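Question (not urgent): is this output format expected?
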Amino acid sequence: MAVDEEALDRAFTALGDPVRRALIARLSRGEATVNELAEPFAITKQAVSRHIQVLEQAGLITRSRDGQRRPCHLVPSALEALTGWIDTYRLATERSYRRLDAVLETLEETP
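Got this back:
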């Protein structure tokens, strides 16, 4: 599986901010406008817009046009790519621990 290192860097950098993680969490429940996304934060709409731009440039969200509304949408495939990358290392580590558990079990059984 080919990994786009630059895309990973952009996505993980974008997710390094707690506000952007909260925006992703909110969008996981459905589309929302900038005003709707800005509502729970004690920051300006302009600051939220900048966070949205970072997420958009990282390929984690998109915006569409619905008349006067410009709702933001989560890009599930982008999150799947991140979790796929993480799972590669998680699964390898789990295999190592299972092998270690097996060795320790045989040592415990040996008198």
